[in-house]
C-alpha cells in the first residue's frame, strides 16, 4: 500500500514522485504491485488528478512504474536484475521528454510549434479532407460505429499496395499495418525487435522522440555520427562489430534534425 505525506510547501507532483520512488527503492512496494488509481490517489490525498498523472508519468519515464492499458499502474518488474541501470541524467532526460511531448500535444491552436514535426494548417488540404469525410459520412456501414480491422482501413491498405507496386515492392493488404503516426509505428517496431538491455544503433543527432521511446524500453543506444552525406561508416562498422546490435534506426532522406540525405555511395556501404 502506498503511504504518502504531502506538504503544501513544495510541488505536490515532486513529493508524490519522491515518496513512491523511495518506497520502491526500500522494497516497501514489491515488483508488480498495483498502485492506487489516479482518481483514488487524488481523492485520498486531496490533490488534483492532473498532479497524479504528472507524477505517474514521471515515474514511468524513470523506470519505476509500468503502465498497463486498462489495468492501471504497477511497480516495474525486477529492477535489480536490469542489464544496466540508466544513470540519473537519463532519468532526468526521460522526464524532460515526457514533459515536452505532453506540452506539445496540449498546445493551443495559436501556438507556433517550432521544431516539431507538424506542418502549418494552411499547408494542408483542409477542403479535400472535408470532402472525403462528407463522402464517408453519407455511406452506410459499420465502420462509422465499430473499431474496424486491427490492421487498419482495408481500402487504404489496398491503395497502398498499388502505390508500393509502382515502386517495385510486392505486397498484399494483409502485410500492411496502419498506425496513428510515426511514433506508434516506431514503438511497435521497438517492442517487437528489442528487449531491455539490447543495443540499437541510432543517428547522432537523431529523432528525439524515438530516443525517448528507446530509453523507456531499456534499450542501450549506440550513437553513429551523422555527416552531410549520411552516417559515419567507420564508426558504424566498429560499433556493429563490438556490440552486434539487432537494429539500426536511421533516416535516409530528410533526416531529423539535420535535413540531410544519405548519398547513394554511403547507402551502398550501409547495406
How would you describe this structure to a colleague?
- It is a single chain.
- The protein is of the alpha/beta class and 271 residues long.
- The protein has three domains: 12-81, Arc Repressor Mutant, subunit A (Orthogonal Bundle), CATH 1.10.10.10; 125-175, no CATH class; 182-270, 3-Layer(aba) Sandwich (Aspartate Aminotransferase, domain 2), CATH 3.40.640.
- The protein has ten helices and six strands.
- It has helices spanning 12-25, 38-44, 49-61, 88-105, 126-137, 154-166, 182-193, 208-216, 233-243, 264-270; strands at 65-68, 72-75, 199-204, 220-227, 230-231, 247-249.
- The protein has a four-stranded mixed beta sheet.
- β4 (220-227) and β5 (230-231) form a beta hairpin.
- α3 packs across α4 (88-105).
- It is globular, with a radius of gyration of 22 Å.
Helix and strand element order: HHHEEHHHHEHEEHEH
Can you count the beta strands? 6
Strand order of the largest sheet: 5-4-3-6
* Relevant CATH superfamily of the largest domain: Type I PLP-dependent aspartate aminotransferase-like (Major domain)
Query: Proportion of β residues?
Result: 5-15%
| Overall domain count | 3
- Percent of residues in helical segments? 40-55%
Task: Report the mean per-residue pLDDT as an integer.
Answer: 84
Shape call: globular
The unreliable regions are 79-89
Query: How many helices?
Result: 10
Q: What is the rounded Rg? A: 22 Å
Amino acid at each position: 500500500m502506498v503511504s504518502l505525506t504531502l506538504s503544501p510547501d513544495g510541488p505536490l507532483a515532486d513529493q508524490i514522485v519522491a515518496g513512491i520512488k523511495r518506497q520502491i527503492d526500500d522494497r516497501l512496494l514489491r515488483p508488480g504491485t498495483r498502485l492506487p488509481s489516479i482518481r483514488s490517489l487524488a481523492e485520498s490525498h486531496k490533490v488534483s488528478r492532473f498532479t497524479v498523472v504528472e507524477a505517474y508519468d514521471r515515474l514511468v519515464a524513470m523506470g519505476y512504474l509500468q503502465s498497463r492499458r486498462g489495468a492501471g499502474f504497477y511497480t516495474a518488474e525486477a529492477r535489480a536484475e536490469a542489464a544496466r541501470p540508466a544513470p540519473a541524467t537519463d532519468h532526468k532526460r526521460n522526464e524532460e521528454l515526457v514533459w515536452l511531448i505532453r506540452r506539445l500535444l496540449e498546445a493551443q491552436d495559436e501556438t507556433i510549434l517550432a521544431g516539431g514535426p507538424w506542418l502549418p494548417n494552411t499547408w494542408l488540404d483542409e477542403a479535400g479532407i472535408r470532402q472525403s469525410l462528407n463522402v464517408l459520412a453519407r455511406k452506410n456501414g459499420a465502420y462509422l460505429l465499430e473499431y474496424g480491422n486491427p490492421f487498419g482501413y482495408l481500402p487504404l491498405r489496398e491503395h497502398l499496395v498499388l502505390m508500393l507496386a509502382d515502386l517495385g515492392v510486392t505486397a498484399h493488404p494483409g502485410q500492411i499495418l496502419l498506425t496513428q503516426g510515426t511514433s506508434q509505428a516506431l514503438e511497435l517496431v521497438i517492442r517487437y525487435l528489442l528487449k531491455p538491455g539490447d543495443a540499437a544503433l541510432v543517428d547522432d543527432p537523431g529523432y528525439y522522440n524515438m530516443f525517448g521511446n528507446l530509453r523507456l524500453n531499456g534499450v542501450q543506444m549506440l550513437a553513429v555520427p551523422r555527416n552531410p552525406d549520411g552516417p559515419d561508416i567507420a564508426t558504424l562498422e566498429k560499433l556493429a562489430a563490438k556490440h552486434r546490435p539487432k537494429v539500426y534506426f536511421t533516416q535516409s532522406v530528410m533526416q531529423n534534425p539535420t535535413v540531410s540525405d544519405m548519398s547513394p555511395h554511403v547507402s551502398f556501404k550501409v547495406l
